[in-house]
Amino acid sequence: MNIIFNPQNLEIFGQLFLAVVLGALIGTEREMRGRLAGVKTHALVCLGSCLFTILSIIGFQDFGSAVDPSRIASQIVVGIGFLGAGLIIFHQSKIQGLTTAAGIWATAAIGMTVGLQFYPIAFFATFLVLVIYTLFYYFEIFLDHFQDKKTPKS
């Protein structure tokens, strides 16, 4: 029996590939807007969170109830929070990087969703992230334009 290309491994390879693709889709939007965290960062975050999730499910099966696999998932959230915090900067009285940090957090959740084999949810969540990044971008421009008209000139 082939230990590399057995059915379980092929399924995991597919999951990891899907996580990279979904993360890269989100990262592409960030890259096109010139943000620091782009395609590679989002693809790696999605891949890593997917892999950790798969490992927490499969890697500890033999331990039974002695090991809680959800502990790894909770640590993904903590680790991504740390990574996201590094993206947020305060510069010239403005906070920058908050949206990208939130996107990294959502991308990690998508990777975990792929790792749990909830593929329709992962696709839909990716779609929602892209909607938020694109459509809401234009909505914010509209709001800024609307606020500029309301603000009295000095």
What attributes characterize this protein structure?
mainly alpha, two-stranded antiparallel ribbon
How would you sum up this structure, described in words?
The chain has 154 residues and is mostly helical. The chain has one domain. The chain has five helices and two strands; from the N terminus they run αααββαα. It has helices spanning 7-32, 39-58, 70-87, 98-115, 119-150, and strands spanning 89-91, 94-96. A two-stranded antiparallel sheet has the order 1-2. Strand 1 and strand 2 form a beta hairpin. Helix 2 (39-58) packs antiparallel against helix 3. It starts with 6 loop residues before the first helix and ends with a helix.
Order of helices and strands: HHHEEHH
Alpha-beta content class: mainly alpha
Oligomeric composition of the shown chains: single chain
Q: CA-to-CA gap between the ends?
A: 79 Å
Helix content: over 70%
What is the averaged pLDDT score? 87
Overall tally of structural domains: 1
Count of discrete alpha- or pi-helical segments spanning 4 or more residues: 5
Q: Beta fraction of the residues?
A: under 5%
- Number of extended strands: 2
Q: Helix and strand layout, with pairings?
A:
Elements: H1 7-32, H2 39-58, H3 70-87, E1 89-91, E2 94-96, H4 98-115, H5 119-150
Antiparallel strand pairs: 1-2
Helix pairs in contact: 1-2, 1-4, 1-5, 2-3, 2-4, 3-4, 4-5
Summarize the structure.
The protein is mainly alpha-helical and 154 residues long. It contains 5 helices and 2 strands, in the order H-H-H-E-E-H-H.
